[in-house]
Write a structure and sequence with these properties.
By secondary structure, the protein is α/β, with parallel strands linked by helices. It is built from 10 helices and 8 strands. The radius of gyration is 18 Å and the shape is globular. It comes from Klenkia terrae. InterPro entries: AB_hydrolase (IPR050471), AB_hydrolase_1 (IPR000073), AB_hydrolase_fold (IPR029058).
């Protein structure tokens, strides 16, 4: 009598896999129960598979098939980092079709949210539900200044021997500093099979892609029919919080959650409040 293998619902234990399509080998991880529409996580600037907060991923994976992946040329994925967000979206489409998925829910953060929007523009039938966090629309005001803020905070982090995400994602008050340290510790919970860090040239190429995105003509977000949840902190310095409000106004029927006293990583600082919101939203079917 055969037994059903245990379902992995901890991101720290998620098996690492690869799939090859169009000459690119994509690295990805899977967890949660199989079946139904998967939730695919689109990661942020300079991020690899190891940059997802398990306090966000694990609650979703408790009831859903979750997939995270490395963009082309990042971490364990081969190839060269694309120079535009549109190309990143095309890569995401290639990856998802290689896995055989006809429809997915998307959970996206920062640069991942930009990629997700371009994916919906190009392939609206592929995305069923959409979660956009810490991100903004194509052509959004001051979007092209992300590089300036990023380099400034990297310099500040270097001077204090800190992880740059502590400055980029969190406020520098007592609550923000504590949340930042806790977040960085959580990213180390996986102790085996960790991903390779992004290379400097790949990081700079992503920054240039964001700048082009910020200086491009806006997408027609009014055409989006996917139920959309938008979330951010109220003091996002990387992708200004007003851009979350802009997304909310432009995407019909979208829902907006803003966490006070937090920045770009508001959903990570307030993970105890946000994770149940995201799970409920994604579970509406």
């Amino acid at each position: 009598m055969s037994s059903t293998p245990d379902v992995v619902t901890s991101y720290a234990l998620a098996p690492q896999r690869t799939v090859t399509a169009d000459g690119v080998t994509f690295a990805y991880r899977e967890l949660g129960p199989r079946g139904g529409v998967p939730v695919v996580f689109f990661v942020h600037l300079a991020a690899t598979l190891d940059n997802w907060d398990p306090r966000i991923v694990n609650p979703v994976a408790a009831g859903r098939h979750v997939i995270t992946f490395d963009n082309r040329g990042v971490g364990g994925s081969t190839g060269k980092v694309p120079g535009t967000v549109e190309e990143m979206a095309a890569d995401a489409h290639t990856f998802l079709r290689a896995l055989g998925h006809e429809q997915v829910d998307v959970f996206a953060f920062s640069l991942g949210g930009m990629v997700a929007q371009d994916l919906v523009v190009a392939h609206p039938e592929l995305v069923r539900r959409l979660v956009l966090t810490g991100t903004g629309p194509r052509g959004g005001k001051d979007m092209d200044k992300v590089a300036r803020t990023t380099f400034y905070d990297i310099a500040r982090a270097t001077l204090t021997r800190s992880d740059p995400k502590e400055f980029l994602f969190f406020e520098r008050d007592a609550a923000g500093k504590a949340a930042a340290k806790a977040f960085v510790r959580r990213l180390q919970e996986r102790t085996v099979g960790r991903d390779a860090n992004i290379k400097p040239l790949a990081f700079l190429t992503q920054l240039q892609a964001i700048k082009r995105y910020g200086r491009s003509a806006p997408s027609n977000l009014a055409a989006f029919t996917q139920p959309t949840l938008i979330a951010n902190g109220d003091h996002d310095r990387m992708v200004p919080s007003v851009l979350s409000q802009d997304l909310h106004r432009r995407i019909p029927g979208s829902e907006l959650v803003v966490y006070p006293g937090s920045g770009h990583g508001g959903i990570f600082q307030f993970h105890e409040q946000f994770a149940p919101v995201a799970v409920e939203f994604l579970g509406r079917g």
